[in-house]
Amino acid sequence: MLSRNSPASFLGRVHAGDTLYPALEIVELEREGDDGFVTTAISVFNQRKELVLSGHHKYLLNLVATSIAK
Question: Which end of the chain is more exposed for a tag (fewer CB within 10 A), N or C?
């Protein structure tokens, strides 16, 4: 799996000792031949429930099942 085109913005400060809580939501699925893309919206909150990072990640997936010879 390869991440590509992943813009994200820090919206608040993060310090050593902070507890971070990530949240991912699948917002788009695309198919291109034997491959596909999944786009997720990402939000990261700190221990005070403040949004500190927001953005999108796009991942390339190989959709062809492969078998492993034994």
Answer: C
